[in-house]
Design brief:
Elements: E1 4-9, H1 17-30, E2 35-40, H2 42-45, H3 52-69, E3 76-80, H4 86-95, H5 100-104, H6 107-115, H7 122-137, E4 142-144, H8 150-166, E5 181-183, H9 214-222, H10 240-251, H11 254-266, H12 271-297, H13 300-328
Parallel strand pairs: 1-2, 2-3, 4-5
The structure holds tryptophanyl-5'AMP.
Length: 332
């Protein structure tokens, strides 16, 4: 049997280069060889403040981004998390075997708590348990996600281990759940344009979205901080300049990279030129995506039927796992 792959993205607006390089590129690399399920995780989306009146639209945006990026419904299943209710059932069952203290210690929980001090809800604490249920509902073994998700995957492996030991299989002897690992891409950490931290949808000025046109990309890059460019020496390891070089490495060819590295070392770098070449290199990669997206936008009926069919398939697979879990836990 082929290995199963699972990943998901929250519906918090258009995808940005971080989502694309850290997650979607991994999904694309895996869809040919594995059984893949890729999700719009709307239940994770609502753990931070959001606008219910635009949520359905945001979900559709991610579906369109997935299809335009090249996720092919003939090769993988696409789901919307809340339409497969087994996710929440399994998450609840997992919550009965995992300590609260461990969840309170997670860096992602602490960050969100600091970011939204008036919105510290149970769902936020529960986030990694639901993420675990997402993956294990389909017995996913490989998870294409950025490096920021590693602490959550550690929780997933702990829960899988704990479940397997608390509710062992009889008969065949095979374990109920695998211990999933992250599938890494070159862009596992795409830096912020602002010079600190990672590219993120919640930080204005940090990102470029996949639907930005060339002029918007130029504008966003022009605002990225640099230095005087006359110092020379080694390229810094962090900050605005380091981040521009990281993006250059991810998008531009070797010749361009070598040229600007050389110029930096000599103290002759012209950041306006670097930013212009980088804008064009990014846009070159995004232009075919944007053209395909327009085609799918013009064909909502096709998109709807593809998703409906895919979700039906997911529900069947999900119910198989739930039957096994309910039985093992003595609930059936
Ligand atoms: P979300 O929506 O925050 O992020 C979606 C994906 O994009 C990756 N990512 C990045 N990768 C590299 N550099 C960046 N700057 C960057 N910013 C975001 C994230 O690592 C992620 O892969 N918790 C998940 C959603 C989720 C999920 C799951 C993922 C829920 N259930 C089950 C996998 C399996 C998240 O971070 O979504």
């Amino acid at each position: 049997m082929k290995k199963r792959v699972y990943s998901g993205i929250r519906a918090t607006g258009r995808l940005h280069l971080g989502n694309y390089l850290g997650a979607v590129k991994g999904m694309l690399a895996l869809q040919d060889s594995y059984d893949c399920i890729f999700s719009v995780v709307d239940l994770h989306t609502i753990t931070v403040p959001y606008d219910p009146s635009v949520l359905q639209g945001s979900i559709q945006e991610i579906v369109l981004d997935y299809l335009a990026a090249g996720l092919d419904p003939k090769k993988c299943l696409l789901e919307i998390q809340s339409q497969v209710p087994q996710h929440t059932e399994l998450a609840y069952l997992f919550s009965t075997i995992y300590p609260v203290s461990r969840l309170e210690d997670l860096p992602t929980y602490k960050e969100k708590k600091a970011q939204y001090p008036k919105y510290v809800n149970m769902g936020l604490l529960y986030y990694p348990v639901l993420m675990t249920a997402d993956i294990l509902l389909y017995k996913g073994e490989l998870v294409p996600v950025g490096i920021d998700q590693e602490p959550h995957l550690e929780v997933t492996r702990e829960i899988a281990r704990k479940f397997n030991s608390m509710y062992p299989s009889t008969g065949s002897g095979s374990l109920t759940f695998p211990e999933p690992v992250r599938f890494k891409t070159n862009g596992e950490h795409v830096p912020s344009l602002s010079g600190t931290g990672k590219m993120s949808k919640s930080v204005e000025g940090s990102y470029i979205t996949l639907t930005d046109d060339l002029e918007t990309i130029r504008k966003r890059l022009r605002a990225a901080p640099t230095d005087s460019g006359t110092k020379g020496g080694e390229i810094p390891k962090e900050g605005g300049v380091a981040n521009l070089f990281k993006l250059l490495e991810l998008f531009a060819d070797n010749k361009t990279n070598t040229k600007y590295t050389h110029d930096y070392r000599q103290g002759t770098i012209r950041y306006a030129d670097l930013k212009e070449e980088l804008s064009q290199a990014i846009y070159k990669e995004l232009a075919p995506f944007q053209a395909r997206r327009k085609e799918f936008e013009a064909n909502p009926k096709l998109v709807e039927s593809v998703i409906e069919e895919s979700i039906r398939e997911c529900q069947k697979m999900a119910e198989e796992t739930m039957k096994e879990v309910r039985k093992k836990m003595g609930l059936e």
